From TrEMBL:
Family: Belongs to the peptidase C19 family.
Name of the protein this chain belongs to: Ubiquitin carboxyl-terminal hydrolase
Domain USP: 109-461
Record's keyword annotation contains Metal-binding: yes
Pfam family, one: UCH
PROSITE patterns associated with the record: USP_1, USP_2, USP_3, ZF_UBP
Organism: Rhinopomastus cyanomelas (Common scimitarbill)
CC terms in the record's Gene Ontology section: nucleus
Enzyme class of the recorded protein, top EC level: hydrolase
Domain UBP-type: 1-71
Gene3D superfamilies: Cysteine proteinases, Zinc/RING finger domain, C3HC4 (zinc finger)
InterPro entries in alphabetical order: Papain-like_cys_pep_sf (IPR038765), Peptidase_C19_UCH (IPR001394), Ub_carboxyl-term_hydrolase (IPR050185), USP (IPR028889), USP_CS (IPR018200), Znf_RING/FYVE/PHD (IPR013083), Znf_UBP (IPR001607)
EC number: 3.4.19.12
Gene: Usp3
Keyword Hydrolase: yes
Length: 470
């Protein structure tokens, strides 16, 4: 089957003769759970965690692959020459638009859907428009995983490249470099998705996934890989050479600081008070994003223009997250003074704000039998989100350090986490764009503020502005 012009992958249990696969006599007779990738002519075995080849003794299938590869590489070369001529002749009229009466190039590049990968595309487009984060990766030195005759050419995966040879940082860098160049209308992130399959087993397959969960896994793995060094250069050297981030902004999560924690890292203070003896317990927790509940009293307010009842705002969600709360019977606090679990209260304070504040609205929740979506419209500001009232020590912050402006929004369209579709809105050089997989369109602020946000990316304001506060 084909979905949006892309081959839909099929899953099956089959006895497969594997010529390029580590195997024993027992394994030759065992059924392997495999996924066929029609776009790259490869087979992935879930049980063996490896790419395998289904071929004949004479290697006829491999010869077909090589022939198809030569044809496609030849097509890529001619297509590249054709595009270069088009650029030289300035005939890309389809990517021109009017801005204040003058003509400007759109330059935006979409991401092809590889089979329900809109969750990944929406996150990648959002991160690509967070300039400080994106520029860091684009300035990293390239890692050449292939050389010789195959340098720069697409290769078909016939076996695992090995965990030591795949680099999430490198493929993430390549994807970001491919965006906003204006040389193509859509880019295929299949190499990045291959690495995701290798190092993030939760995202193998082609079913719909949760965009927020993917974002957390992506940032965590980028953080871990950067800690281990990149291209033979230590992470600390890369961080010093490629960014102007002050040391005070480097929040450490799971080890040493990286650009991930320097940009997205903040610190929460968790206060728990025993209601019996009054003992107070304080704990500091680092975070990369804040997951906010939509208050229950607003859950029937589905659209911005719907009449009846107050409008739910982002401030309502932040207040619900930080307000004093009495823990229920299932969350009793183990009081060290009383030596047993007691009723208690809990409150969050933000001890340190990040450079980029990522706010996740908890739209999916479990009921007795299934996972439902909260489709409530939540009003959010484009500019001037003031976070000072949620700080532990607001008096120590500057007048502009607590103000945030919106950079990107991820939206989930549909009724359930396992279905529906993800798109993203993002600001680039003062203009707002709507990213819908391969399609990128220019939009306006009025359209953005009407979106039912799922993930919001706010960037700390650098210059003073007279914009209204939240």
């Amino acid at each position: 089957r084909y979905v949006n012009g892309h081959a839909k992958k099929h899953y099956e249990d089959a006895q497969i003769p594997m010529t390029n696969h580590k195997k024993t006599e027992k394994q030759e007779k065992v059924q392997h759970t495999v996924c066929m990738d029609c776009s790259s002519y490869s087979t992935y075995c879930y049980r063996c965690d490896d790419f395998v080849v289904n071929d004949t003794k004479l290697g006829l299938v491999q010869k077909v692959r090589e022939h198809l590869q030569n044809l496609e590489n030849s097509a890529f070369t001619s297509d590249r020459h054709r595009k270069r001529k088009l650029l030289e002749n300035s005939s890309l009229n389809s990517k021109l638009l009017k801005v204040n009466g003058s003509t400007a190039a759109l330059c935006a590049t979409g991401l092809r859907n590889l089979g329900n990968t809109c969750f990944m595309n929406a996150i990648l487009q959002s991160l690509s428009n967070i300039q400080q984060f994106c520029c860091y990766f684009k300035e990293l030195p390239a890692v050449e995983l292939r050389n010789g005759k195959t340098a720069g050419r697409r290769t078909y995966h016939t076996r695992s490249q090995g965990d030591n040879n795949v680099s999430l940082v490198e493929e993430f860098r390549k994807t970001l470099c491919a965006l906003w160049q204006g040389s193509q209308t859509a880019f295929s992130p299949e190499s990045l998705f291959y690495v995701v399959w290798k190092i993030m087993p939760n995202f193998r397959g082609y079913q719909q996934q949760d965009a927020h969960e993917f974002m957390r896994y992506l940032l965590d793995h980028l953080h871990l890989e950067l800690q281990g060094g990149f291209n033979g250069v230590s992470r600390s050297v890369i961080l010093q050479e490629n960014s102007s981030l002050p040391a005070s902004n480097k929040c450490c999560i799971n080890g040493a600081s990286t650009v991930v924690t320097a940009i997205f890292g903040g610190i929460l203070q968790n206060e728990v008070n025993c209601l019996i003896c009054g003992t107070e317990s304080r704990k500091f927790d680092p975070f990369l994003d804040l997951s906010l509940d939509i208050p229950s009293q607003f859950r029937n307010k589905r659209t911005k223009n719907q009449e009846g009842g107050p409008m739910c705002t982002l401030r309502d969600c932040l207040r619900s997250f930080t307000d004093l709360e009495e823990l229920d019977e299932t969350e009793l606090y183990m009081c060290h003074k009383c030596k047993k679990k007691q009723k208690s209260t809990k409150k969050f304070w933000i001890q340190k704000l990040p450079k980029v504040l990522c706010l996740h609205l908890k739209r999916f929740h479990w009921t007795a039998y299934l996972r439902n979506k909260v489709d409530t419209y939540v009003e959010f500001p484009l500019r001037g989100l003031d976070m000072k009232c949620y700080l532990l020590e607001p008096e120590n912050s500057g007048p502009e350090s607590c103000l945030y402006d919106l950079a990107a929004v991820v939206v989930h369209h549909g009724s359930g986490v396992g279905s529906g579709h993800y798109t993203a809105y993002a600001a680039h050089e003062g203009r707002w764009f709507h990213f819908n997989d391969s399609t990128v369109t220019l939009t306006d602020e009025e359209t953005v503020v009407k979106a039912k946000a799922y993930i919001l990316f706010y960037v700390e304001r650098q210059a003073k502005s007279g914009s209204d506060k939240l």
